[in-house]
Amino acid sequence: MPNDAYQHIGDYMMPSFPPQPSDLGFLFGTRHGVPEFCEAEYALWQEGMFQRLLVSGGKTGGHARSEAEHIGERLLALGMPASSLILETAATNTGENVLLGRATVAEHMDVESIRSVLVIGKVCSTRRYLMTLQRHWPGLRMSVCPVNYFGVPVERWHEHDEFRARVLGEFGKIPGYLDCGFLHEIEGCTPYPQVRL
């Protein structure tokens, strides 16, 4: 694939929305790169980027404990107070992360007062997180702390086998997700690039 095609795909899949102080931090659960996620999250909290953090993720991959419980335990060990954490422990996909996460937040906060969210998630899934929020929790000002645990700079994503596979896998699914109504495009962002995989 030509290098400019990789650049178009990378720009689309990993858009830049630099972290901003927000009403809520939203960590999309994962089993990959958990130490890196927790360190990034804790640093953002220390910087005052948010006071409350939603961690959403259920029991995936045959594990007995949910992603949210596993991540929450590590954050507590780092020094984040339990009063700052909101754990959603049932979601098994990104749509459920947002829908169940919002419902869980509503048990702890006035959800109508939340105007901004700082997303923390895998760098290769940045676009999907934002488009899912746009679909199921519209009207938020979104910023992102993308966690890159692949060991190469983001601009060289196509040179790393796993990084490339994850980005291209996500890229290929976007049109189908849009057709099914799972996602909404983000106003002001680059349109889906027409490149051959």
Key structural traits:
197 residues; five-stranded parallel beta sheet; alpha/beta; globular
Give a brief description.
The protein is an alpha/beta fold and 197 residues long. It is built from six helices and five strands, in the order H-E-H-E-H-E-H-E-H-E-H.
| Proportion in helices | 40-55%
Side-by-side strand order of the widest sheet: 3-2-1-4-5
Mean pLDDT: 94
Low-confidence stretches: none
Q: List the helices and strands in order.
A: HEHEHEHEHEH
What gross morphology would you assign? Answer: globular
What does this structure look like?
This protein has 197 residues and is of the alpha/beta class. It has helices at 3-13, 34-46, 67-78, 94-106, 126-136, 161-180, and strands at 24-28, 53-56, 85-88, 116-122, 141-147. The chain has a five-stranded parallel β-sheet, with helices on both faces. Helix 2 packs across helix 3 and helix 4 (94-106) packs across helix 5. The longest helix has 20 residues, at 161-180. It is globular, with a radius of gyration of 16 Å.
Question: Which helices and strands, and how do they pair?
Answer:
Layout: H1 3-13, E1 24-28, H2 34-46, E2 53-56, H3 67-78, E3 85-88, H4 94-106, E4 116-122, H5 126-136, E5 141-147, H6 161-180
Parallel strand pairs: 1-2, 1-4, 2-3, 4-5
Helix pairs in contact: 2-3, 4-5
